[in-house]
Input
Amino acid sequence: MSLPPQSTLQFTPDLRICRLLNGMWQVSGAHGRIDPAAAVRNMFDYLEAGFTTWDLADHYGPAEDFIGEFRRQLTAARGVEALSSLQAFTKWVPRPGRMTRRIVEDNITRSLRRMEVETLDLLQFHWWEYDDPAYLDALTFLAQLRDEGKIRHLALTNFDTRHLKTIDEHGIRIVSNQVQYSLIDRRPEVHMVPFCQEHGVHLLTYGTVCGGLLSEHYLGQPEPGYRVLNTASLQKYKQMIDAWGGWGLFQELLGVLKQVADKHQVSIANVAVRSILDRPAVAGVIVGVRLGVADHHAENARVFDFTLDDEDRAHIQAVLDKSQDLYRAIGDCGDEYRG
Ligand SMILES: NC(=O)c1ccc[n+]([C@@H]2O[C@H](COP(=O)([O-])OP(=O)(O)OC[C@H]3O[C@@H](n4cnc5c(N)ncnc54)[C@H](OP(=O)(O)O)[C@@H]3O)[C@@H](O)[C@H]2O)c1
Output
């Protein structure tokens, strides 16, 4: 199997990515036990199928080490040239506090070492406390490290539009912001998408399949209790569904998505992902991968085999129109992380 040309996107002049990124929060331990050897073996399956782009973070358990080990094994099997076929986007999620060049550089050096790279393809920066303006210091030092060649491109995760604008006004070049964006959580559409379109910032999205809740598996099922939802991801997005409109409305959405999926001979998850991939400013959708445990890549590849038409979009929109406004309930992108 190989993915069609429309599966890739020129993300930056020097980086071409797969528009379905492999998300590695799922190896952190919060989603069940992961066997490292099986996980790295499974990474070869993704690469071979054309899923070349990985999303990870310094705090996703062994994720950065898995990239390092994968690169070692890939070099041994296929030579050093094979490394140019993969892209690994990590994050730095520091504890709030004073930011010095030393603190920033030490953390970037740790990621470089763990991933066994000389340059980080993309460093996505998270900040917990907008009241603490030290995020601008951190980003200034990160921009210096980028200019010195330790980071190829600087990005953000979970920043709201107001602070993305502040960063832009400080002249710090940002290529992307990673945010929650799905048929359930459409908060980015209020301010973030227009800003990104205007300023040439890409969005990378997560939560787009709601941990697997947006799939046939939950269609026609009674509301699951939290003990049944056995990954951190399922629990996180079940809460979003509760705030969005509850299990009854969610079943209505699954029903409509199933009709659309049947029409195109694809799956509910395919329709959920396609719906977001088609939105303006969205460069890629990150789908979490429980490496060595569960593998949906063959099914997810089908997202590149069909297009949604106006009738499909209208049917889906009719259900979405009945939901709560999560922007009013929660706020802008990332506000759920900031009390
Ligand atoms: N920046 C942030 O704050 C942030 C937050 C969350 C996530 N992320 C990133 O986004 C990635 C995705 O994480 P997420 O929590 O948002 O999870 P997600 O992508 O919404 O859900 C991933 C889960 O969906 C299920 N799934 C995938 N394809 C499927 C299909 N075709 N049919 C049925 N089920 C399917 C799988 O469940 P099973 O494994 O159970 O089969 C998989 O583990 C993370 O790994 C991380 O890289 C970033």
Summary: Residues 23-26, 55, 157-158, 178, 206-212, 215, 231, 233, 267, 269, 286-288, 290, 294, 296, 299-300 surround NAP (CB under 6 Å). The two ends are 45 Å apart (CA to CA). The CA atoms of residues 185 and 326 lie 7 Å apart.
